[in-house]
Amino acid sequence: MSANESSESGCRSEVRLDNSTCTQKELSVTASVISMTVGIFSNSLALFILVKSYNHIRIKCRASFLLFASSLVVTDLLGHLISGSLVIFVYSSRKKWEMFDPHRIVCGVFGACLVFFGLSPLFLGSAMAVERCIGVTRPIFHSTVLAPHHMKRLLGITWLLPALVAVLPVLLQRPYKVQSSRSFCFFHMENPKDWLDVFLPLLFSMLGLLALLLSIVCNALTSCVLLQARLRRKHHCRGTSYHTEMICQLLAIMLVSCVCWGPLLIHVIILSTRATDEPTSLTLLTVVRMATWNQILDPWVYILLRRAVLRKIFKLSRCCWGSTSQDLHSWQRSMLRSSIETSNSGAGPSACHCLSRLPPPDTTIKSIT
């Protein structure tokens, strides 16, 4: 009788274990599908907005910024399509890597995609920050020396370097390894065999942190120059509204990258340099999931932090704070100046007119009305 009861209890526990495993698999697949769908929709919408802006803007600095921004959104979109499909495939196969990937081909592709689509947004963000810093601090050098083909070459380098880092483990015969959570593949960080197993993850983390540091320095310098120009009331011929919009977007991208990728990059350095062999599968999986949110939040920077949206937010906040109409008129005059300067600068650098040659803003507004 007791044997029958124990057998029945064992059967029930086995059924409960199978049910819980199936439930976890369904929840994981559902969460991956939702994340992939939201990421594809967000990046597609942001790409539509950026391409539309790129076709209507003929300012050189603005066109360069939109080229890098569109490339960043395209990279995030491809990352969701490729990496998201691999994640769904792994979870739907119940993480049985030995059955569906005996030759570790899927694992190699999965690890290379994680490295490439991780470093590429960081490099693109730093390249955008450097380009804007040169455009604001050295506008003559930016207009005369940095041609469009130079920007395209820089864009190619920002894609080529992450690709080389991604295929480096395969070239050095250090293939990617299935991690303890069996959810993804990454560098071989547990029980390293030699210095290569330590060098590869350190190279990945150090390049990512270097890109973040470069973005922080360049964005801080650009913000200080723009703020100083605002305080001294020195308006450039190209208009400060576009510079303000671009620096707001760059600061938001930098903040999102630091929050999402910072924990993973630091955690990889800790895992690579520590001497103990304690299992950290849950922590590594958590920081990897945090890093994937970077591809979802990046496009909303371009969707929400546009000049038209910022102008509406500014007007709404001014109305809520009960400011006078003079502040609104000054904002409208500055936006009118920027639009006139933008239209004048569309023909090239030689067609740039300074604000001193424009008629008074009140007269211009009255003539328009």
Automatic annotation (TrEMBL):
Keyword annotations: Cell membrane, Disulfide bond, G-protein coupled receptor, Glycoprotein, Membrane, Phosphoprotein, Receptor, Transducer, Transmembrane, Transmembrane helix
UniProt domain G-protein coupled receptors family 1 profile: residue ranges: 42-302
Protein name stated in the entry: Prostaglandin F2-alpha receptor
GO annotation, cellular component aspect: plasma membrane
Gene source species: Lates japonicus
Subcellular location: Cell membrane
Family according to the record: Belongs to the G-protein coupled receptor 1 family.
SUPFAM superfamilies: Family A G protein-coupled receptor-like (SSF81321)
Membrane topology: Multi-pass membrane protein
Pfam families, alphabetized: 7tm_1
GO MF annotations, alphabetized: prostaglandin F receptor activity; thromboxane receptor activity
TM stretches of this protein: 27-51, 63-91, 103-124, 154-172, 198-227, 247-270, 282-305
GO biological process terms on file: adenylate cyclase-activating G protein-coupled receptor signaling pathway; inflammatory response; positive regulation of cytosolic calcium ion concentration
Main localisation: membrane
InterPro entries recorded: GPCR_Rhodpsn, GPCR_Rhodpsn_7TM, PglndnF_rcpt, Prostanoid_rcpt
This protein's record includes keyword Ligase: no
